[in-house]
Amino acid sequence: MPFYRVLPHQTYSLSVKFTLLSGNLKIVRLMIASSAQLEVYDVHSGPPLHIAYAKGHVDYVKELLNAGADVNSVKFHEVALHHTARVDMVDMIELLMEFGANVYASDNLGRKPVDYTTPASPAYTCLMFYESNPLSLQQLCGITVRMRLGTRASEVIGQLDTSHRIHSNLQYCDHPASLQSGT
């Protein structure tokens, strides 16, 4: 008798978890293409997005978010921004914000992500910028469309007959975020 039993619907999620831990982006992409469940919660590490950001894999986080992972999913009373603020991961904060992370999310102690930074840190500057400069209507529309489409977002947006500009807004593109343009 195994130590614990894996139910059939958990197989892809566990596979994504172990793939994220092993560090193979090509396999993560293959798992996503094979309809891996991106929001199944593992008691020890949360959903796959939480594993990716905790390991500091910006490219993995981007793949998961592009595939429809919930940027504001909760693990042990905190969202990804709490962790990335705590460890001063500005690139990750910028990416999470581009996908609609809630800069005002509070944890079980009532603390926002900025409360886990020090005033002189780059993470503090970044989070304070997003607190005082809300996303544009264009950014919010792109986020809303991606969230509504969920895991089908990349596929559906790729098939739309729209201008390049609209397509770039709907589909996440590597464009400089707010702080990078000012430095």
Describe this structure in words.
This is SOCS box domain-containing protein. With 183 residues, the protein is an all-alpha fold. The protein has a single domain (10-181), classed as Ankyrin repeat-containing domain (Serine Threonine Protein Phosphatase 5, Tetratricopeptide repeat, Alpha Horseshoe), CATH 1.25.40. The chain has eleven helices and no strands. The protein has helices at residues 11-22, 25-33, 48-54, 58-66, 80-86, 90-98, 122-132, 137-149, 153-159, 164-170, 178-181. Helix 2 packs parallel to helix 4 (58-66) and helix 6 runs parallel beside helix 7 (122-132). The longest helix is centred in the C-terminal third of the chain and has 13 residues, at 137-149. The protein is globular and about 45 Å long. The relative contact order is 0.10. Mean pLDDT is 77; it is low at 1-12 and 175-183.
Short key terms for the protein model shown above:
11 helices; disordered C terminus; about 180 residues; about 50% helix; Serine Threonine Protein Phosphatase 5, Tetratricopeptide repeat; disordered N terminus; mainly alpha; globular
